[in-house]
Design goal:
Strand content: 15-25%
Largest sheet: 5 strands, parallel
CATH class of the largest domain: Alpha Beta
CATH topology of the largest domain: Rossmann fold
Oligomer: single chain
CATH superfamily of the largest domain: Response regulator
Number of domains: 2
Number of helices: 8
Order of helices and strands: EHEHEHEHEHEEEEHEHHEE
Strand order of the largest sheet: 2-1-3-4-5
Structural class: alpha/beta
Length: 223
């Protein structure tokens, strides 16, 4: 699950992103409403968190513009404004939920997961490629009915592969799908994590599921 955090307080935005990473989620940051407009329209975010009192385009206007542009991504508004009128204004502008600062990071993550479940059902279906099964909701992976423990990043990378079976994915596509823009991207990080997946998903089963396509990237075979 990938979250866009729209928050002009850089310190708070960083704390939110780290708390979401601790939950195994991806998080990008926009500090201005203008930046959030193009980011939300160009990337497949699961949920947006939007601060109400942004400089320039405030959170209320940002919600209105996103909805008018046809962006239907669920929005959680975060704000220090706790008057009923402000909450009504946020919801009427297009927000789906409202959380007043200061908030508990555990509650924030729970609300984001709940909002993500409101998107079209196909995002939450259990994925199957050959005898590999990945459940995005429970974050469990099985092969031949054997549960395989994966780290958060291994899980995210495998999910990208399993949403595109038999397709050759470039290293850039894999980075875009499994890493947010706050991570330092080492040149060989994809190769390292594909190695982890091969060891865990193929090593104990005598299979070879991941093809290396020289000069391009990798492919997860469905057969």
């Amino acid at each position: 699950m990938r979250i866009l955090v729209v928050e002009d307080n850089v310190e708070l935005a960083s704390l939110i992103r780290q708390s979401l990473r601790d939950e195994g989620l991806l998080a990008d940051i926009a500090i201005r409403g203008e930046d959030a407009l193009w980011m939300a329209a160009s990337s497949p975010y699961s949920v947006l968190t939007v601060d109400a009192l942004l400089p320039g385009i405030d959170g209320f206007e940002l919600c209105r513009r996103l909805r008018n542009a046809g962006v239907r991504t669920p929005i959680l508004m975060l704000t220090g404004l706790d008057d009923v009128e402000d909450r009504i204004a946020g919801l009427d502008a297009g927000a789906d939920d409202y959380l007043v600062k200061p908030f508990d990071f555990g509650e924030l993550a729970a609300r984001l997961r709940a909002l993500s479940r409101r998107v079209p059902a196909e995002r939450d279906v259990v994925l199957h490629v050959a005898d590999i099964e990945l459940d995005p909701a429970t974050r469990r992976v099985r092969r031949s009915q054997v549960e395989i423990p994966l780290s958060a990043k291994e899980f995210q990378l495998l999910e990208v592969f399993m949403r595109h079976p038999d397709q050759v994915l470039s290293r850039y596509q894999l980075l875009e799908g499994a890493w947010d823009n706050g991570h330092e991207h080492r040149s060989n990080i994809i190769d390292v994590y594909v190695g982890h997946l091969r060891a865990k998903l193929d090593g104990a089963f005598g299979t070879q599921s991941f093809d290396t396509v020289r000069g391009v990237g990798y492919r997860l075979r469905s057969a």
